Amino acid sequence: MNNCVKIVEKTLDSFKIRYNKRYLEETVTSNPSYPSLQCLVDTMDLYGINNMTIKTNREKLTEIPIPSVLQTYENNSNSFVLLKEVNEEFVIYLDELGNATKMSTEKFCENWTEIALLLEKTSFSGQPQIGTVHKKDTLNRVLVVILVVLLSIWGLYGFLENKNLWSFWTLFLIIKVLGVVVSTKLLLHENRIIPTEFCKISKTLDCDSILESKYSKIFNGTVNLSTLSFTYFISTIICLVIDKASLFLIFLLCILTILDFLY
Q1: End of a domain among 120, 149, 174?
Q2: For the chain, what is the largest distance between any 2 Cα atoms, rounded to a whole number of angstroms?
Q3: Is pLDDT of 1 > 50?
Q4: Is residue 125 part of a domain?
Q5: Is the same domain home to 112 and 136?
Q6: Half-sphere exposure of 89 (CA within 13 A, CB side)
C-alpha cells in the first residue's frame, strides 16, 4: 500500500487544485499513519478538502459521488483507487500508477473492501502557502545550477592554467563518492533490501520518487538508471585513483559530470 502520494496527486488534479509535488510527497510520507486511510484523511484536511469515510455495500456503489477514494484488498494488502466513473455495468478508476482502468462492476467489487472516502472541494481548498513553497523550490533549483556552473568554470580554469589541480581532484573524488552512496541506496531499495524510511536522500526526495519517475529507465526500459549511475560513479572513481595525474581524464570526467547533473 504505497500509492497514497499518487492518489492525493490525482485527487488534486481532479479538483484542479494547484500543488507543489515535493511538498506533497513530504507531507504524505512524513505522516505518522503513512501509508493508511488515515494518512489520506489527514492530507485531505490539510488541503481543505471536505471528506468523510463511510462503510457501505456493493448495492450502493453507484451512489458514491465522483471523485472518491475506494479501498481495495489485493495480494494480501490494502490499496487505494480514485473512482472516476461508475454504473451498473462497469467502473472506471485510477490505479496505483495513476492510469485509468476500466473493469466490470462485478469484478471490481470482488476486491473492494466496501470502504470509501467521500471528497468535496470547497472555496478554501488549496495547498497551504503554495506561493512560498514554489519560490523556495525554484530558489533551490537555481542555487544547484549556479553551483554546477561555478564548479565547471573552476575546473576548466584549473585544466587550462594547470593550477589548483590537486584540490580540484580531491573535490571531484568527494562528489563521486557521494554519487556512489546515493546510487547504492537506489540499488538496495530497488531490490527491496532496505525500506523507504532508510532511503531518504533529502526531506523532499526519496528512492521511490526517483525510481518511479519517467527518467528512471532509458532505452525503452532496457537500462535501469540506478544500475547505470552506480556503474558510472564506480568507474570514474577507479579512473581517478589509477590515473590521478591525467589532465585530459579529469577534464573529460568534469564534462560527463556536468551532463549527468543536467540529465
Answers
A1: 120
A2: 78
A3: no
A4: no
A5: no
A6: 0
